[in-house]
Write a structure and sequence with these properties.
Chain lengths: ~180, ~200
Amino acid sequence: MAVAEAQTKAHSPGDTTWHGVVLQTLKRNDIKLVPYVPDRVLTPLIKSLHADPYFTTFATAREEEAVGIVSGAWMGGTRGAVLMQTSGFATLANVLASLAMPYQIPLIMFVSERGTLGEFNYGQSLVCRTMRPVLDSLAMEHHTATRLDEFEFIVDRSIKQAITTQAPVALILSPLLTGGKVLDK
Amino acid sequence: MNTHSSTRNTKIMNRFDLSSRLVAKLKNDEAVVGGIGNTNFDLWAAGHRPQNFYMLGSMGLAFPIALGVALAQPKRKVFALEGDGSLLMQLGCLSTIATSAPKNLVMVVMDNGVYQITGSQPTPAATVADIVAIAIASGLSNSVWAADEEDFERLLDQSLTASGPMLIGVRIDDKPGTGQTRRDPVQIRERFMVGLGVRQPL
């Protein structure tokens, strides 16, 4: 995480960080409920969400549980988003195909990308390769965010598109944006 | 059949009968989320209401979906009906719900110990585990078995005024569901949102 944060700061103008952009853009779009399964890279975002009373944020045992929660909340009139890691996304094909897509639920997912650009765990690099084919097989909207200067545009527009078209979206947070996770020596 | 029923002091009841008893008690537009298969078939057969949501997949997510509804609408009571096999897919959600502790969520587990809809194969839990004990150990202290139909109705009355999440276990027979839900996911979701006052019909 130290590496991730240092790299984020290195190409951030002023105090802007990728996680600051996520938090502010969620708020601006009235997204209050953020269940997650944690990831090392997501830690500064999770901390700042917990520190902000605007958000209801908590850990779930599985990613699909979090998808169920935000789906129910949306039908009840509260907007949500789910945070997870690549390997967590790999557990979601069933719930995407049987809940989010057919019921037309604007499921908003932030996926911290493991498995590429310096991965040290072979299993992570393999599971990463399943992510985009699954998204493409369902014709789900997805973007890979690599640059901080484009990031707010991508997040804000994607959230608005998901809600207005009632379709899920996955925002993949590349190590180019977050710094990723590297093997500590 | 529930293979360990003989060792327990709980009557074997019927899913459709219990679903009908639940629906008859709902006077305040309470939301009801029905898990996949027979659980929502019997909810549907008990009489469709706009506040019912029927799952057509995503086995095990009735309680998480209901938790989301309960968090979004804290003044509305939310019921979730789930089969024992479905719940086994997602036991972790019991702890999530216990930590979140919504005052307005009531969970009913329809336990027959089998995957009725796939050919009545016993679940791995059927002869060894106790769903209500699992719920209590997961942090849901207000979890109980209903002894019979009258007790179920008494527990439902209690749940309507409960100040925290409640889980009611019911032992049911191995009968299939009564009828089948109309499988139109967009319409189910839209009508549910209208029923919850989130949307107006076009």
